[in-house]
Amino acid sequence: MTPPGLAELVSSLRAFVQEEGIQPDPAYIQWNSGLYAVLDCVYSSQVRYALIVLPLLQQRFPAATGLKDTLELTFSAFLDSVGRDPTPERLEAYAANTLRTRHKIAGRLKVEVAYDVCRFFVE
Predict the structure, then answer these.
(1) pLDDT tens for each residue of 40-88
(2) How many domains does the chain have?
């Protein structure tokens, strides 16, 4: 079975939102890329959103990596930025030097969790 394409998925999601009468919160931040949505999801756990996540995604991450929140930004770009099959030391360095946060979730660096999610979507 062939998985549905992007246009078909977007169309299906739009139809569902319309049929269910879902009204998005106008204050909700809508990221353009799936990568930024993943980073938002992972990094927002157990932190103060305005103090940690927004500065990370609106300033530090794009400035440090050049990966801007655009529709064309891919999960692979993040994997390449961190390094394919990174060592624990590489993840630690990326967290500390690039993202400038070493926050953890379930005992793992959040950058490692985000990396695994991106790798899942790429594969």
Answers:
(1) 999 999 989 889 999 999 999 999 999 999 999 999 999 999 998 999 9
(2) 1
Per-residue pLDDT at 10:
87
- Give the per-residue pLDDT at 23: 87
Q: For residue 105, what are the β-bridge partners?
A: 108
Q: Give the residue carrying structure tokens 């353009």.
A: 32
- Answer yes or no: are the C-beta atoms of 60 and 103 closer than 8 Å: no
pLDDT at 88: 96
| Residue 10 lies inside a defined structural domain of this protein | no
Rounded distance between C-alpha atoms, residue 19 and residue 75, angstroms: 30
In a domain, 53, yes or no: yes
Taking the C-alpha atoms of residue 121 and residue 116, their distance in angstroms, rounded to an integer, is 9
Which two three-digit tokens encode residue 33? 């890329």
Q: Domain span at residue 47?
A: 28-122
Question: Is residue 13 one of the residues assigned to a domain?
Answer: no
β-bridge pairing 104-105 and 108-109: antiparallel
Question: d(Cα 120, Cα 27) in Å, to the nearest integer?
Answer: 30
Instruction: Determine the pLDDT at residue 121.
Output: 95
